[in-house]
TrEMBL record:
GO terms for biological process: DNA integration. It comes from Phytophthora cactorum. Residues 1-16 form the signal peptide. Residues 1-137 form the Integrase catalytic domain. SUPFAM superfamilies: Ribonuclease H-like. GO terms for molecular function: nucleic acid binding. PROSITE patterns: INTEGRASE. This is Integrase catalytic domain-containing protein.
Length: 200
């Protein structure tokens, strides 16, 4: 299994595609499915010196899209620093997740990671890549739930009241737990100090 990452140089938008095999034809098909169908043909495709991107198949594909194909220099891979940073972030997260050998759903995890990367404010662009591509900010599940409950009628206002009450109950429970822990610590400290004073 392999993970292929594409990144738009203008918006910083990252697109990932996991692949069972990475022959040049499959890479070109993955590019067509993941990038071309979503964003259209790019004016330039910058890549490392990977043989799959240097192959005649991929070069013919780039010509068909009327896209220039440019490789970063082998002695200067950080020339494409934006892509290198994205790859580093994704791979570090995936590596941590896969310390457990029983995990088999890494392709789902990668989709979530890419969503998180695309919805993080870029320090250079001062916007999220998602916003720069689509023109609006993505709404998380939590945001969608809370905004739909504001000032609602009937069932929505009931759900909002329930959420408020459960939040209040949670705060009370945390306060009680904190109080209990403090009293238990105090009892243990007293017991320990009494035992020490008896020894003296």
């Amino acid at each position: 299994m392999a993970l292929l990452l594409f990144q738009c140089a203008f918006t910083g938008c990252v697109i990932a595609k996991w692949m069972a095999d990475t022959f040049a034809l499959k890479v070109a098909q993955a590019f067509k499915e993941s990038v071309y169908r979503r964003l259209g043909a790019p004016s330039m495709i910058r890549h490392d010196l990977d043989p799959r991107f240097m192959s005649e198949v991929f070069q013919a594909f780039a010509d068909m899209l009327q896209s220039r194909s440019r490789a970063t220099l082998s002695y200067r891979p950080h020339a494409n620093g934006q892509q290198e940073r994205s790859v580093k972030s994704v791979m570090a997260s995936v590596r941590v997740y896969f310390e457990n050998p029983l995990q088999q759903d890494w392709n789902e995890l990668v989709e979530r990671l890419i969503f998180a990367i695309n919805n993080s404010v870029d320090t250079t662009r001062k916007e999220t890549p998602f916003y720069l591509v689509y023109g609006w900010d993505a709404r998380s599940t939590l945001t969608a739930m809370t905004t739909s409950m504001r000032g609602g009628f009937g069932r929505q206002s009931d759900a909002r009241a329930w959420r408020r009450e459960s939040s209040r109950q949670q705060e009370i429970t945390f306060a009680m737990a904190k109080e209990y822990q403090a009293s238990e610590k105090e009892k243990r400290a007293k017991k320990h100090n009494d035992a020490l004073s008896r020894m003296e």
